[in-house]
Amino acid sequence: MTLPSLNLYSALRAAFPADLDSTAVEATGPHGESLNYTWRDLERASARIANLLQSLALPKGSRVAVQVEKSVEALLLYLATLRAGHVFLPLNTAYKSAEIEYFIDNAEPAVVVCTPGNFGWVSRIAFARGAHSVFTLGDDRSGSLLERAAHFGDEHEPVARTAQDLAAILYTSGTTGRSKGAMLTHGNLLSNALVLKDYWGWREGDVLVHALPIFHVHGLFVAIHGALINGSKMIWLPRFEPRAVIDALPRATVFMGVPTLYVRMLADPALTREAARHMRLFISGSAPLLIETFRQWQERTGHTILERYGMSETIMLTSNPWTADERHGGQDERRGATVGFALPGVGLRVVDDGGTPVAAGEAGHIQVRGPNVFAGYWRMPEKTREEFTADGWFRTGDVGLQDERGYVTIIGRSKDLIISGGYNVYPAEVESVLNELPGVAESAVVGVPHPDFGEAGVAIVVPRPGAAPDPDALLLQLKQQLAGYKVPKRCFLAAELPRNTMGKVQKNLLREQHQDLFA
Ligand code: MCA
Ligand code: AMP
How far apart are CA 276 and CA 267, in angstroms? Predict the structure, then answer.
């Protein structure tokens, strides 16, 4: 594919429908109120914020770090950052001050936008690290960002950017416990958005129900770009509630969610064939979709969920087909428990430990390349080198196989990672905080099956000699330092951790021991 070398916003803007006064976003506000935004509103309001950002005269490549609640104005801020040619750095609202401190320290953003309530501590951290400005943005249009932007004009020409220029940095935790910033370019994001528009058959009249958070790849890029680059309306929900999504389905055609969202919707009797009748496509990703969920969804709604696979470093890599994939003999079957085919333009190979490709159907390490693959980790050239092979393939850290027909199945991970409700939890990070708590000698955190979150963390703690820490108190202490979703759901004390002859903790034994904990 030849990519236009331009600001991603320009490509999205070019897809807006001719009638700019039609609805672009139908939102529910924080108090349940209905809010309507036209395409013209998106264009003008993001222009004001872009003009504000540009008035700061920041150097090229400046980062705009954002930790705010989901709102349409937060979406406008993202679009404005693209327009101004800056680098968007979204941060999960669950992150606590120690986590935010690390990101700000590492990324050195020129601009930080936080909620009005967090201004005190966030601005202290940001200004200490040399930030130029700290703005606030509430989910009810409050805060200094919009107050300041209101003084600027509502026309703005997007700053020229090439496909290689950075558009966003997404932090993804490392196996050593320290997060790495994946640098994504305008070209990465645009190429992926264009491929998905075609591969998922986006068409006129499509309407997306947006119920995901907007600080990770799934909600921010896959969902938002998907709708905007097709000129499609979004039904914008401030948070996921099963009934609110089900109520929106009769007015929509596309829904995207992590598996937990599907599990929770299945638990609501209001999910029926009739409720889903108007829908065209249900897409799942970010974590493995259990085959039971896939089948229950088929039985209940008559729809076959399309599962796809991706990463922060690569955006989307593989997908089950929406319709016949001519590259694979015209196959159009969405196969449960698989993540489908490598997307057009994406190279995918499965290799053994020595890096040699394995035969079809054999398990190995998944490596990828393509225009969607990121530009490296922010200020970590060493890490970047480690994650690429000499011949330029990115090591995903996922273990899987590709059958003769081309379907990819993920069967595990070589990275020590728990995916809980679609959020990544790196045991190394949790263990390092846990090990510093009073009375703890060492610890191990493992993921075990969980009916709601897919996987949930369990901590096994070895007390210091003579100490007897209370497991629940340890979890409470963890909660003060780490985002809530990273905190293990249970904690057990043990006299020692099982180790192999090399001294490495045998996490597989711990997982086996606790695998029925949440059954
Ligand atoms: C919330 N809690 C969790 C999780 N979410 N615990 C474990 N795993 C979770 N995912 C905990 C909170 O800390 C809190 O604990 C309690 O549950 C209630 O919190 P609340 O915020 O009310 O939870 P919720 O609203 O029910 O949220 C569940 C959720 C949410 C809707 C499933 O986790 C979610 O939106 N997940 C989607 C994540 C996502 O977008 N992932 C995409 C990543 P306590 O009560 O103890 O304080 S992008 C990606 O992975 C790649 C690139 C890809 O392929 O897409
Ligand atoms: P993140 O670091 O948040 O970008 O998460 C990326 C990881 O999520 C991948 O490396 C996979 O391990 C996992 N992942 C994403 N989609 C799927 C899927 N459909 N099935 C299994 N794992 C997935």
Answer: 15
Hey, is 84 helix, strand or coil? coil
* Partners of 113 in the β-ladder: 66, 135
Confidence class of residue 5 from pLDDT cuts 50, 70 and 90?
low
Quick check: CB of 410 below 6 Å from ligand 2?
Answer: yes
Contact status, residue 397 vs residue 415, Cβ threshold 8 Å: yes
Taking alpha carbons only, the member of 393, 392, 411 closest to residue 401 is 411
Q: What is the pTM of this model?
A: 0.97
C-alpha of residue 451 to centroid of ligand 1, in Å: 14
- CA atoms of 508 and 501, how far apart (whole Å): 15
pLDDT of 177 > 70? The answer is no
Pocket lining: 288 vs ligand 2, CB cutoff 6 Å: yes
pLDDT, tens digit, for every residue of 239-259?
A: 999 999 999 999 999 999 999
Ligand 2 centroid–CA 320 distance in Å is 15
* Backbone dihedral region for residue 493 (phi beyond 0: left; psi -120 to 50: alpha; all else: beta): beta
C-alpha span between 172 and 184 (Å, rounded):
12
72-83 and 39-55 helices cross at what angle (nearest 10)?
Answer: 60
